[in-house]
């Protein structure tokens, strides 16, 4: 503002007055003009400097060496240091250009690797999807007894994986060579985790859930009801199910379970007025405590009484006429 006031004067005498009003001595004017000249040089490079700093701040941590150089550059491109010595600007911008080349290469490499791994997870999720759908149908068959708690979230977890495995259109080469430091399509950073653990949980819960449902089908009472229905009705799908049960192959359940078959089995079990109530084997055995050799009979009597009491309680909680069966299970998640 002072320089503008001096430059706006009309003659030498006015200039002398205005200059002395603003700068008492020539050295003060020389120092002020030197500062102005430095500021002007910083201003001329302002667009490039602001672009470089904005890119550095938006960039993510990608590799140890690249990350360290990024932090250093942010300090070197500080306004005060460049204003003090504008001659450094060209060198600093050249440093940034070299760093950016390294960052673009490292980012594209990591970005591509992430989506390659994500594609593999997506394939595995697609492979387990039919099993998850079959398990959901089997879990809806309340007449078999309550399903494993961990298996109840398999479908929701699978849906979450499907949402997280959306591919990036620029997976092979993210467009980060321009003004944008993160992929414009997905804004990926290394902080984004792969849903590997979630997939493992789905696979484990599905396998355990199918095994549990197969075990319920192998229960003597239920197996007998199904076998009698197959002999009377000659249903091919029920015959196949019985073969799967006989082979104890949980994976094969996926191929035979349909909504129609589930509904047929539900009606069969309901017609038999059969209700299964779970009993924890751990809780039963905990009541027995330690068993001495000469008190085996006493322990057996105690276990028998506990089972009878549980059966009586279960019957009291069911509608009149329902047949109640106790299903002794070992605790599993």
Please give a structural write-up.
- The structure is a single chain.
- This protein is mainly alpha-helical.
- The protein is built from 15 helices and 2 strands.
- It has a two-stranded parallel sheet with strand order 1-2.
- Helix 7 runs antiparallel to helix 8, helix 8 runs antiparallel to helix 9 and helix 10 runs antiparallel to helix 11.
- The longest helix is centred in the middle third of the chain and has 51 residues.
- The chain is elongated, with a radius of gyration of 38 Å.
- The protein starts with a helix and ends with a strand.
- The mean pLDDT is 87.
Keywords:
15 helices, mainly alpha, two-stranded parallel ribbon, 333 residues, elongated, 2 strands
What is the mean pLDDT? 87
Find the structural class using helix and strand composition.
Answer: mainly alpha
Tell me what portion of residues adopts beta-strand conformation.
Answer: under 5%
**Fraction of residues in helix:** 55-70%
